[in-house]
Design brief:
mainly alpha; rod-shaped
């Protein structure tokens, strides 16, 4: 049996149980969608912080106590020189505390970036749990499917199908469930990121790397959680399977 026929059989089996297929994919859809949306928000926030730093460092004016360096590379040295100049103008003796405060803009930017990364990691962990639950759901549904189709499996084995053909059929079904759910999740995540950007004026950026990783992770979930049910189906005894009621 060639791979094309296996794909056709798998698609037919999924299409015959559309409600079950949709509910099974729900965990993958939510997990992948959340990952894409969270990463897009994080990427947008990082880009916003970097742009803010660039704008601050590129300014060449002095107003009151706010000033800027000619470039980011000399910002620390500029801060040291400003502090020395301020101490000199204020006639502050060595060993005496400063009468002024200096705050580097990168400190604020770094704090914002760290907060964003922490929130991103937290939400990504929640999304990972959703993916795990989705994978367990796929395994459960595939085991139920194997039980329901025991006679069909026995018939296929009896007329010449090999165990690895049955293994590939159920494994392909599991992977297709994951990939379709992953694709829908990516689309929902990108739409959600765009909606957040338009509604709250918060910059978002959907990363192509995040899309590829999410899609690949969906495939791995299908393989990992679908292998055991597929192996169970491949190991069925044709005679016992045909007798199954």
């Amino acid at each position: 049996m060639n791979l094309l026929m296996i794909h056709q059989i798998a698609l037919k089996a999924l299409w015959q149980n559309t409600l079950r297929t949709g509910l099974t994919m729900l965990g993958i859809i939510i997990g992948v969608g959340a990952v894409i949306c969270v990463v897009a928000i994080g990427e947008g926030a990082s880009a916003r912080v970097e742009q803010a730093i660039t704008n601050i460092m590129g300014q060449t004016w002095l107003d009151d106590i706010m000033c800027s360096a000619i470039s980011a590379a000399v910002a620390d040295q500029a801060e040291t020189d400003i502090a020395a100049l301020m101490r000199e103008r204020h006639h502050i003796r060595p060993g005496t505390d400063d009468e002024f405060n200096l705050r580097h803009p990168t400190e604020i930017a770094q704090a914002v970036k760290q907060s964003t990364q922490t929130m991103e990691a937290l939400l990504a962990a929640i999304a990972s749990v959703s993916l795990l639950v989705g994978g367990i759901g796929i395994m459960n549904i595939m085991l139920v499917s194997v039980t329901e189709r025991t006679r069909e499996i026995g018939l296929r084995l009896a007329i010449g199908a090999r165990g690895r053909d049955v293994l590939w059929q159920f494994l392909v079904e599991a992977v297709m469930l994951s990939l379709i759910g992953g694709a829908i999740g990516i689309a929902i995540g990108a739409f959600g990121a765009r909606t957040i950007a338009n509604s709250f004026q918060w910059p978002t950026r959907v990363s192509s790397n995040a899309v590829v990783i999410a899609f690949g992770f969906s495939a791995m979930i299908g393989i990992f959680f679908g292998y055991y049910p597929a192996l169970q189906a491949a190991r069925l005894d044709p005679i016992e399977a045909l007798r199954y009621e």
